[in-house]
Specification:
Number of strands: 5
Largest sheet: 5 strands, mixed
Order of helices and strands: HHEEEHEE
Structural class: alpha+beta
CATH topology: Trna Endonuclease, Chain: A, domain 1
Helix content: 25-40%
Number of domains: 1
Mean pLDDT: 90
Strand order of the largest sheet: 1-2-3-4-5
Distance between the termini: 40 Å
CATH architecture: 3-Layer(aba) Sandwich
Number of helices: 3
Strand content: 25-35%
Length: 149
């Protein structure tokens, strides 16, 4: 099934859920973040990433990795940051030292199960919903955004 059809079906189900189901007690910024991760997944698939995990958590460490996938022969740990405006600071700036530390720790656990000699990197994808085209996000991908050290 083409990714665009899957994305359309998911959007329709979300639309129906909003209209037919009781409203969630979820904060609006969390809903925006969830929507951003969905759109990020489909955007990265469209440009060639092949995913093996979403919202990966390690039993040993705190934190999670939003998306894990292959960009050709490189395993990528992708952190997605979603914003509705550029006004305050760039979304990727939210991946500070503390967040990087958490992502590194979870990635180390994941890499224990990866093939020997596997190439890998950390990517950050900023997703923006703003302006008259707020229903269609814009994306900024930062490949190799930070290192393991």
């Amino acid at each position: 099934m083409p990714a665009s059809l899957v994305q359309f079906v998911l959007r329709m189900l979300d639309w129906l859920a909003v209209r037919l189901l009781r409203p969630e007690d979820t904060a609006p910024h969390l809903l925006t973040g969830r929507r951003g991760e969905e759109d990020a997944y489909f955007y990265l698939r469209k440009i060639g990433y092949v995913f093996v995990a979403r919202n990966y958590r390690s039993p040993r460490n705190r934190g999670e990795i939003d998306l894990i996938g292959w960009d050709e022969d490189v395993l990528c740990f992708v952190e997605v940051k979603t914003r509705t405006t550029h006004d305050v600071k760039p979304a990727e700036a939210a991946v500070d030292r503390k967040k990087q530390h958490e992502i590194r720790a979870v990635a180390r656990d994941y890499l224990r199960h990866a093939p020997d000699g596997c190439q890998w990197r950390f990517d950050v994808l900023s997703v923006y919903y703003e302006g008259p085209q707020a229903s269609r996000p814009s994306f900024e991908l930062f490949k190799n955004a930070f290192s393991m050290s």
